[in-house]
Amino acid sequence: MPNEIDKKIKELSLQLKKEVSEYELESFAGFFTYSIKYPSKDDKQVLNKFQSRLKDFLYLIALNATSELRGNKLMVFNDPNIQRWANILDEIKKLYQKNVLGDLAEFDNSLENKKRIIQYFSFHTYFENGTLSYMEQDLDHLDRVFTPYDDYLINDFGIEIEFLINLYRFSELVSNEKYKRSKAYEKTPEFLAFLKAFKGDNWDECVEKLPNQIFNAFCEFGDCSHKSLKFTREEYCSAFPSKKIDFFLKHFTFQPLPDENYLFFTQSNPLDDKPILQLPSGEYLYTYQKQIPITIGKFLFQHLLSKEKLKDKIRSHREKSLEKKTENIFKNFFNKESHTFFYSNYHSKKNTEQDLLILSRRTAFIIEVKASKFREPFRNPNGFKRLESDFKDSIQYGYEQCLRIEDLFYDDQPFSIFDKNEKLLYEIDPKKYEEVFSIVVTLERLGSIQSDLGLMLNKEENVDYPWSVYIDDLETFLMALRKVKNSPIVAFKEFLRDRHKLHGKAYITDEMDVCGTFLSNPKLFKEIATNKDASATFLPDNQQIFDDLYFTGLGFKDELFIENKKLKKFKDINRTQAWVYKKR
After folding, report:
1. Contact 328, 556 (CB under 8 A)
2. Is 23 helix (H, G, I), strand (E, B) or coil?
């Protein structure tokens, strides 16, 4: 039986769907897709009232696209309804919170209440937070995991991974070129003079001075700012075989048809699996272009899993691919450190297996890699068991594997490590190592239960927490360290020394909020970590440093637009305003 909160959520969701259905599809979807791709940094803009631009905007687009009766109202930048929708969504999210947590005023420190808090943190992070990753990482994942299965893909679909990668890179290049052309008027002397003369109340006077060509370009962009995100089938068929383009459009295009069952913010959004929206004109619109390689990966993995003879093979290959990728990330990071040795797929005790050990001068890094699935958190208070199960299969198990080797280092007795054929790899004297760090790398983000291991990890009280990190976050952080630090390995060890002290005393929904803070303000990071009386909330603003670095060239292999990026210079600015800091 639905409770009163569920009824209110449904009522508000129906109201929201009814209101957005008054708008014409392309105008509405185009407005929000452009705002996802090119977000404004002006805090005064009403669009910034939404808590999660990505998740919220895709939800609104999906509501409009699945409406029973859609109107012809055009979406405009200063539409007064935008603020209302932000408020309604905010109220819906608060109701979800209340549904899980109940009345916070009545909370105590019982185990059941702790479980409810953990459940809500995971639910909130999963549904409301966009995650940081870069297209080069998603394309690399496609290449590593699926290229060995090209024969099956060619037989089943007539496509191979190289085509899908090239198609996506082509789509980004085309969109970028269209965007530059549509905004070219902004760099003309006449338009720059217009901006200088315009004071907010003399529009007609200033706009009349614009040459017709520039005025028309200005108006055209205003009427269709999302033009760079639109394409036609013929446009792509001019560069690739039409049958392959038809496969792409068939499997990754969402048809805007009425669907009364799509209503709630916490439902699976159809645009996550089909990020291309077919428009009434016959054109196609990328609702979130960067989602394309992620969606392709999900589709291909499920397809190969459906083949009985491949089911176990593809899972095993994906895990081995993750292990190899992790090893390569660390090898690239340590490539200028000559006294560093890597041991993969090793063991010290029989009938055990370890993933990676790095011995770098007087420091040991014990690394375990986990490809376990993290399932969508339930939106009811009874979802803790699923979270607990997923956590045990990944981070808890990885930590216990690390601990097997970590304990040997702290026993001070020499021990040997072997490969899978029992060949001796190295005899280790623990006395030669001053520091030992344990790291658990995961294939998926587990949100707050990964960033704050104090919530769920079982460990002895006097033992340090490991560092648990999602594979793409690991790569991005280490690349950023190499770019901004004169001694990146030294900085990395500084980070690890203090990172474990944050567990249980900080609110963290995303590891990159923490990593970004360390890069932007290491002094404050250390102060929070080492002050036993301090607690902090790490906010998403801290991730901005990674985008700033990326748009000046982060260092990915085959990085898109790298020549243009090299023309820009990274500006290291103080981002302390992203912190909430208080004494306990």
Report:
1. no
2. strand
pTM score = 0.90
Which residues face 344 on adjacent strands? 356
Tokens encoding 537 = 């909330």
**Per-residue pLDDT tens digits for 135-149:** 999 999 999 999 999
Helix pair 291-305, 242-252: axis angle to 10 deg: 90
DSSP state of 392: I
Q: Write the DSSP symbol of residue 396.
A: I
Looking up tokens 């960067």, which residue turns up? Answer: 290
Q: Which of 269, 480, 446, 311 is nearest to 370 (CA)?
A: 446
Q: Which residues, 6 or more positions from 187, have their beta carbon under 8 angstroms from its beta carbon? A: none
CB 405 within 8 A of CB 348: yes
Comparing CA positions, the residue from 398, 384, 503 lying closest to residue 443 is: 398
Question: Dihedral, CA atoms, 147, 153, 159, 162, nearest 10 degrees?
Answer: 0
Buried b (16+ CB within 10 A) or exposed e, 49-67: bbebbbbbbbbbbbbbbbb
How many degrees, rounded to 5, is the angle at CA 382 between CA 379 and CA 385? 110
178 Cβ partners below 8 Å, 6+ apart?
A: 227, 228
SS3 category, 340: strand
Report the relative pairing of strands 284-286 and 276-278 from DSSP bridges: antiparallel
Strands 435-442 and 424-428: unpaired
Tens-digit pLDDT profile for residues 199-242:
777 777 788 788 999 999 988 998 899 999 999 999 999 999 99
How many Cα atoms sit within 13 Å of 111 on the Cβ side?
Answer: 2
Residue linked to tokens 């090209």? 150
Take residue 359 and report the two structure tokens written for it.
């011995």
Token pair, residue 97, equals: 């919170």
Backbone angles phi, psi at 534, to 5 degrees: -105, 150
Torsion, Cα 314 317 318 321, to 10 degrees, reads -160
Distance CA 402, CA 366 (A): 6
CB contact set of 53 (below 8 Å; sequence gap of 6+)? 35, 36, 39, 47, 130
Closest C-alpha among 373, 401, 399 to residue 386: 373
Identity of the residue numbered 97:
Q
> Strand 467-470 vs strand 363-370: parallel, antiparallel, or unpaired?
unpaired
What one-letter code names the amino acid at 452? D
